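Data deposition worksheet. Section B asks for the primary sequence of the deposited chain exactly as it was used as input, without tags or linkers unless they were present during the calculation. Section C holds the resulting structure in token form. Section D is free text for depositor observations; keep each observation to a single sentence. Incomplete worksheets are returned to the depositor.
Section A, Depositor: J.P.
Section B:
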Amino acid sequence: MKLHNCCLILCLFTTAVAAEDLLVSPQHCNTGLSNARLRAAVSVASEKSMVHVRGGEFWMGANDLAMHDALPQHRVLVDDFMIDATEVTNADFVKFIEATGYVTLAERVPNAADYPGVPRHLLVPGSVVFSAPSHSVSLANPGQWWRFIPGADWRHPEGPHSSIQDRMNHPVVHIAYEDALAYANWADKRLPTEAEWEYAARGGLDRQPYVWGAEFKVEARLQANTFQGSFPTNNTAEDGYQATAPVASYPANGYGLYDMAGNVWEWTSDWYDPEYYQVLAKLGVANNPQGPERSVDPSEPGISKKVQKGGSYLCTDQYCTRYMPGSRGRGAPDTGSNHVGLRLVRSIPKK
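Section C:
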């Protein structure tokens, strides 16, 4: 896997990178399976339940000044679409793999040409895994709780000695953007735009901070799989889960969609630009925005990012509250980790 910096070995095997900015994997890997073959394999596409979301206008974005890239709130119009009721599960992904033989990016041996001077025996398949420090650490350095683990992939979420055998109804993880596209092509679906995702997540609620309303807990009950305790060292698992939870473990939103907050980050099709909302706000009402033409991330110039939405089981008000529907995450397309998955949509032809 290819890191976007010069300290390859140090970063791969002793540190990791920010949850929102994981920087691994080659951009020019041969997937080993053409789009034509993927489409030909649609015969046994996932039968996951989908929900018809009727289009309309809504206020998109956050009203939290700390989330500068989600400002200002602005009006957006989206058309009708279908969306998966839950995140794509391990069981769903198994069907895809069995039908196509696809190999995810995390399972591939890195191309030595991408790493001049690095010994071949250090170029191994793997992915980035959250690893809780044993002592208190500064929240300014995410590398203290992220590690590259050889052998970590969707089948082995925490590394080669872990398994999904008892987690078939959990969301699939370690999914890079190209993996998400491959699955979407096979399932005859697509990734949602950022606007579609947020419209669906809000479930009909107007400018509420959470997908379920105004308060973090409802009748003292947690509404999403997030991090409880002292981040990142001690997850008390008050909600019953140290990591991912089975999909639909929490109440659905107003549209009947589950896990639109927490559990795992979900890819969208939009490129990330922290100033994009300022552009949309000038339109009055943005009609089905598709994202900017290119990605800009001032924190890492030259590295393109895609927008991710929904937060994950690692989100906490101590560090990252981006499980809120109006907030935005971001990740390099060639990156997966053990808290990144996907949910798909399907367009509805206009009459």
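Section D:
The helical segments are 8-14, 35-40, 90-100, 177-186, 194-202, 276-281.
The chain has six helices and 16 strands.
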